[in-house]
Amino acid sequence: MSLSGHPVPLTPSASAGSGAIVSLQGVTKRFSGVVALDGVDLAVAAGESVGVIGPNGAGKSTLLKVLAGEHRVDAGVVSIGDRETTGMARHRIAALGVGFAHQIPQPFRGLSVRENVRVGALHRRGPMSSRERVEQVIEICGLAAKADRAAGTLPLLDLKRLELARALSLEPQLLLLDEIAAGLVGEELDQVIELLLMIREDRTLIVVEHVERVVADIVERVVVLDWGKLVAEGTPAQIAADPHVHEIYLGTKDQAAGDAQTQGPRRRGARQGLLRVEHASAAYGAATVLREVDLEVGAGEVVAVLGANGAGKTTMTRLISGLTRSSGGRVSFDGQDVTGLSAHARARLGIAHCQEGRRLFGGLTVAENLMLGAQTRPAREAAPETLAEVHELFPILAERHDQLAETLSGGQQQMVAVGRALMAQPRLLLCDEVSLGLSPVATDALYEALAKIRDSGLSILLVEQNVHRCLRLADRAYVLDRGRVSFEGDPEELSGEERLREAYFGRREGDGATPAAHPQSELSQPGG
Amino acid sequence: MKRVAMVMVALVAGGLSACGSSEGGSGGGKGPVVVGASGSLTGPLSPIGALLQKGYAQRVKEVNDAGGLDVGGTKRKIELKQLDNKSEPNLAAQQARTLVTREEAVALLGSNTPPINNAIGAMAETLRVPLVMGLNPIRAFLSGSKSGWNYAWDQFFDERQATTVQYETANLTQTNKKVALFTDNEQDGIAQGRLWTENAKKYGYTIAYHAKFPVGTTDFSSFIRRTKASGADIVIAQMIPPDGVALWKQFKALSYSPKLAFCEKCGTNSGWGAALKSSAEGTSGLGNWLPQPDRPETKQVMETLGKQIPNAHDLGLAVSGYTAASILFDAIQAAGSTEPEAINEAIGKTDKMYPVGRVKFTDNAYGVEVPMLQWQNGNGVQVYPAGGDAKLQTPVAGLK
Amino acid sequence: MTNAIVNGILLGGLYATIALGLSLAFGVLGLVNLAHGELLVGGAFVSYLVVDRLGLDPLLSLVVVIPVVFAIAYPMQAWVLTPLLRRNEDAPLVATFGFSLLIIALLQQGYSSDPKSLPASYADAGVSVLGIDIRVAYLIAFAVGVVLIGVTHRVLLKTRLGAMVRAAAADPDTASAVGIDVRRLYAATFGVAAAMAAVGGVLIGITFSFTPTSGLAWVLTAFAVVVLGGIGSILGTLIGGILLGVVEGVGVHLLGGEWRSLIIYGLFFLALTVRPNGILGRRLA
Question: Which of A398, A428, B180, C242 has fewest C-beta within 10 Å?
Answer without folding.
Answer: A398
